[in-house]
Amino acid sequence: xxxxxxxxxxxxxxxxxxxxxxxxxxxxxxxxxxERRVKEIVSTMSLEDKIGxxxxxxxxxxQRDTLVDGQVILDEGKVDSIFSKxxxxxxxxxxxxxxxxxxxWYRIISGIQDASMKYIGIPDIYGVDxxxxxxxxxxxxxxxxxxxxxASFNRELVRExxxxxxxxxxxxxxxxxxxxxxxxxxxxxxxRIWESFGEDPxxxxxxxxxxxxxxxxxxxxxxxxxxxxxxxKHFMAYGVPISGxxxxxxxxxxxxxREKFFHPYKEAIRAxxxxxxxxxxxxxxxxxxxxxxxxxxxxxxxxxxxGMIVTDWADIHNLWQRDKIAHDYKEAIMLSxxxxxxxxxxxxxxxxxxxxKELVDEGxxxxxxxxxxxxxxIRLKLRLNLFDTPNxxxxxxxxxxxxxxxxxxxxxxxxxxILLKNENNVLPVAKGKRILVTGPNANSMRSLNGGxxxxxQGTDNPAFHEQYxxxxxxxxxxxxxxxxxLEQGMDYLxxxxxxxxxxxxxxxKAVAAARGVDVIVACIGENSYCETPGNTNDLHLSxxxxxxxxxxxxxxxxxxxxxxxxxxxxxxxxxxxxxxxIDILLPSNYGGDALAKLMSGELNFSxxxxxxxxxxxxxxxxxxHKPSEKTVTMEGAYNYSSDVDVQWPFGYGMSYxxxxxxxxxxxxNEFTPQDEITVSVNVKNTGDREGMxxxxxxxxxxxxxxxxxxxxxRGFDKINLxxxxxxxxxxxxxxxxxxxxGQDGKWRVEEGDFIFTIGNQKVGGKCTTTKVWPTPNI
Length: 778
What we know:
By secondary structure, this protein is of the alpha/beta class. It contains 22 helices and 33 strands.
């Protein structure tokens, strides 16, 4: 029975894989001299050398088990075994689970490189989750999390943040970062929403391209000492588990998989991304680490991409221990390597090496597959120039943690915090007003930074961030200590890994303090968490925090809600009680300072929601929903009502000034699929102060052979306007950008009418012919 099942599995994936090939030009142009070096190096390697390069282990396997004089020390015996016996090609992760200084990183990684060069003659490639700046580096520059980057709608700031992250990572001798995260955040229950660029494919793709360029520079074949290799993750559809729980199955229809979920990866791969990490879960019944069609067919062959694919943490083990598609570890290795995995993040065992050798000797994994995988790994190391320069010294990076880098982080935080409500002009808050700062997020750096910040789950350890300001401290600096009172009303649980829940309840003290102030700033939301520990059974804001706001409202004082959260917690019951609402998401170390300047009016809001903020737990939706998700009156008496009532829509965000859109134009009233079109609009600052506006361009296909989406983002730009100033904003796109994937799996633009929308302006146009593309990618 097992043999039959496996045979059917092979037929399915190989057959489907044929549909993954296309005629695209290579994603990364070949460099002939580099390719010669790849072949020369691989030709001299033994089978043991090749298999070792395909193995990635955690730093735990080469470090001593305890600190020595407060420092992480490599264990010479472990190091010798890992490199001399098993020929391991990569080490990852943060030593002892907490951020290291640049000097410590350099000492550790250069020691690993010395051993790798001594025993193998091939440099190690060290990988770290530097997910929002130098987030595992003590003293490094942390940036707002990716969800904030998306909320900024500012490509330039995102690219600059990635460039600085690359610089500070190389100052630590780290050449490879597991970023950007490109999982469409379309299920708000999912605990990794904050690691993503939100729900929209275009926005995800655009920001991922900026990060790849910022990390790697302009030549993916030749990265310098200021660049790191990007690793796109988690390929793909990881962000839409049915249950909302991390690493659990998703079901995605093939049309959306190709059209929406693949899109950001396609864009980033074409921008030169050098590596990809795989989805840890199951999509449409197949564990991704064994999915030949998507790993080899879509990614490698379909995009003609010569980069490297690495597993996520222990995910080959999961094929047999959790997902039950293999009898044992050996069979799981066979399935994953044959599917297209090039490097296994084992991460705690080296048995992978001996078992893979057995599989090659038995003919169950072909030598050609080994050579292909190893060539991709060697190519990555050559592109990083690790053979010529295996280490980068902190002494050569004088701008590490510089004021210039801090300013870039502050600017991104400022442009990502979102004003959602401002009744009775409660904002900006006038100087001299007495302010109560309350809520469990009021005085916490951990909640501002989120996960992947100095430690896996985030930390309140002041040793890492005592020089930065919490919301309370920043407001005290901005409005004067005598005018700002702190009474949180509760604290988050302090047990590591237990992010949900509050303790030390003292709501009555907060209410008493509120009676003596002019305005209440309630800082609510979530504590930090990361991955599976962030799973939740209830998206509502916690009962204790909801009660705090309700009790404060009874004082009659105006309330400003500060939402500091990794995903949108439902606040339907308390939103009407607030005069102002600001969603700061996870703005990191300078987020409190940015908030204070925005609340005082010294700076202006310009962030917009990168996802749809839900109002009801059983009415979750995205902006690109189908037309049937609106109220429709059907023939006869039956009123078909399926309206989804949301708290705030995708792209929503207010400012202290006002903007007027007018005079939208389309350069061609009729067009063909081969054309380009330009849509333009005038945007005027009609308020009395300078402001920035994210201008978002949408298209709507009115009738199609499959039910079209309500609308889709096709472009965005961010502009700055002085009072009274007008700017003409234009978007030029190929008509092929309007294509969708049909029932036959092919891209098509169909004859018919379209509506183009920017702000409150709409213009119509007509495609005069239909085109169907024969290739899987356009």
